[in-house]
């Protein structure tokens, strides 16, 4: 295994260099090869012409690294060179075509059209100044060649852009599938673990208050509360809810806000609609962890049993007798008929809350279902049976 990993690392170290711009290289090689073939038919050219050809080939090679500047210089050099070095004019066409193709490929349709019309204007001027050397048939041929080069470069540029868009779309689709899978996993974690964790934490808290000297129940309460917090953090991470301050709430107020925001977002993403109203002073609540776990169970029950067509309404408030009261109203799913949607999770919550001086009760009125949870706001009140 160790030797195999070394061979893989060695293969990456000696990886062959990559050609980053294959189309540029194709243009350069093709048109320079055409000029060299032209030179092969007429090898006995003057030294000045041979020098001009060498300079143009060098400029053509530079278009790989500097496509636009080198192409412009190549066009200007050939425009002047065919008048200074008279026999050199037989090589200018292919260099014009190379520059036109590169400019059309590397820029936009506007610049490609501008290059095309500039080459047409230069060719027409040559016909006017030297009608014998540039007859009308040659002008038409040059125009056709330039047009084909412009269209070729523009098409390849469009194809490159389309390929980039397709790759981006495939990347976005892959990211969307990951987000959907994460959302599904978060929903499953939210649904399957919340009831057990809520029951464990509430039972442990109740027993710890009943027998304060029993360290085992205190440890169970800490561990179960931490596990519930870790699960909520995992759900936020899976759903990409990484807003600052949500990962580890230090106060009951921020924790309450995080629980409501997370649960409402989960319900909204699952097709539910509704509102949550909060009317309490967090500083007056000493049983914040119990309130959060009970509220978590309320939202879980809505997610599992409520109708998506009827909006839900949750109210969290303090009462004059020192209790935190959570009222939840929502529609029932038609498939559940007359079955009251209170299952083991609510039954466990009811048992634990009654042991600490609170209560959990539910009722159904037609297609509307109501849940009422009451929790002592202070730890002192939880010891009153």
TrEMBL record:
Keyword Kinase attached: yes
InterPro entries referenced in this protein's UniProt entry, alphabetically: HATPase_C_sf (IPR036890), Sensor_HK_TwoCompSys (IPR050482)
Keyword Transmembrane: yes
One Gene Ontology MF term: kinase activity
Transmembrane segments: 21-41, 53-76, 88-105, 136-158
Keyword vocabulary terms for this entry: Kinase, Membrane, Transferase, Transmembrane, Transmembrane helix, Two-component regulatory system
Gene Ontology BP term (one): phosphorelay signal transduction system
Protein name stated in the entry: Signal transduction histidine kinase
Higher taxonomy: Bacteria, Bacillati, Actinomycetota, Actinomycetes, Bifidobacteriales
């Amino acid at each position: 295994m160790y030797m195999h990993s070394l061979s893989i690392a060695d293969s990456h170290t000696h990886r062959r260099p990559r050609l980053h711009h294959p189309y540029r290289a194709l243009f350069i090689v093709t048109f320079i090869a055409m000029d060299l073939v032209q030179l092969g038919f007429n090898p006995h050219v003057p030294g000045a012409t041979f020098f001009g050809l060498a300079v143009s080939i060098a400029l053509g090679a530079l278009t790989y690294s500097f496509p636009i500047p080198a192409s412009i210089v190549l066009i200007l050099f050939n425009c002047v060179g065919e008048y200074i070095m008279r026999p050199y004019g037989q090589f200018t066409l292919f260099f014009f075509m190379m520059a036109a193709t590169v400019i059309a490929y590397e820029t936009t349709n506007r610049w490609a059209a501008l290059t095309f019309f500039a080459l047409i204007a230069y060719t027409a001027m040559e016909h006017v100044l030297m009608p014998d050397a540039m007859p009308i048939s040659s002008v038409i041929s040059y125009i056709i060649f330039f047009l084909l080069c412009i269209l070729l470069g523009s098409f390849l540029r469009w194809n490159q852009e389309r390929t980039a868009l397709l790759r981006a779309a495939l990347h976005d689709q892959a990211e969307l599938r990951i987000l959907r899978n994460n959302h599904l996993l978060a929903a499953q974690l939210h649904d399957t673990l919340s009831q057990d964790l809520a029951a464990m934490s509430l039972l442990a808290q109740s027993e710890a208050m009943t027998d304060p000297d029993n360290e085992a129940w205190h440890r169970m309460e800490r561990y179960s509360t931490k596990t519930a917090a870790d699960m909520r953090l995992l759900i936020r991470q899976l759903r990409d809810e990484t807003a600052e301050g949500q990962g580890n709430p230090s106060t009951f107020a921020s924790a309450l806000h995080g629980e409501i925001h997370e649960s409402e977002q989960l319900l909204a993403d699952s097709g539910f609609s509704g509102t949550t109203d909060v009317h309490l002073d967090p500083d007056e609540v000493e049983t914040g962890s119990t309130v959060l776990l009970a509220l978590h169970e309320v939202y879980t029950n809505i997610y599992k049993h409520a109708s998506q067509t009827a909006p839900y309404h949750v109210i969290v408030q303090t009462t004059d007798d020192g209790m935190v009261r959570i009222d939840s109203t929502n529609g029932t799913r038609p498939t559940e008929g007359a079955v009251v949607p209170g299952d083991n999770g609510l039954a466990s919550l009811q048992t634990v809350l009654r042991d600490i001086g609170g209560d959990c009760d539910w009722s159904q009125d037609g297609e509307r279902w109501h849940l009422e949870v009451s929790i002592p706001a202070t730890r002192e009140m939880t010891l009153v049976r």
